[in-house]
Amino acid sequence: MSKPISEMGWDELVPGAALFTFNGDINYNIADIQPEDRMYSETSSKSMSVGDWRVIKPVWNSETCIDCQNCWIFCPDTSIIARNKEMKGIDYEHCKGCGLCVSVCPTNPKSLLMFNEYETVEDALGKWPEKKKKGEE
């Protein structure tokens, strides 16, 4: 490589390169380590803001959340803010809008849904779907 990965643009990465969130092998339970204590790789969005290019974002509804921590465990950039096994919010500065948190949310309706980047959280919460009963489509 001609320059470090951290100085490359999105179109300069070596074809076939994998961008890993964490450095080296993880020989611990990632769910037991707070985000600020994790060993991030230089290619993780944890070290750079992605809020300027995201087009959709997850919105969290505390009314339907059961604090299962699935979103916190699976978020590739630790953009889910949780303390003492309770969801507290989303770090929009580092969230890239991948939607993984929404896909692993088990609640009905989901506690996290994707909305347009420019939609306010208040407006998004006002559009939240009602709970579907068994047999409803």
Structural notes for this entry:
With 137 residues, the chain is an alpha+beta fold. 12% of the residues lie in helices and 14% in strands. The chain is built from 3 helices and 4 strands, in the order βαββαβα. It has helices at 70-74, 100-104, 121-126, and strands at 56-60, 80-83, 86-90, 112-116. The chain has a two-stranded antiparallel ribbon. The protein is globular and about 55 Å long.
Summarize the structure.
The chain is α+β, with helices and mostly antiparallel strands and 137 residues long.
Describe the protein's topology.
Layout (H helix, E strand, L loop, with lengths): L55 E5 L9 H5 L5 E4 L2 E5 L9 H5 L7 E5 L4 H6 L11
Antiparallel strand pairs: 1-4, 2-3
Give the tally of β-strands.
4
Q: How far apart, in Å, are the first and last alpha carbons?
A: 52 Å
Arithmetic mean pLDDT: 81
In helices, the fraction of residues equals 10-25%
Spatial sequence of strands, sheet with the most strands: 1-4
Would you identify the regions where 5 or more consecutive residues have pLDDT less than 50? Answer: none
Strand content: 5-15%
SSE sequence, one letter per element: EHEEHEH
Q: How many DSSP H or I helices?
A: 3
Q: For the CA atoms, what is the radius of gyration? A: 17 Å
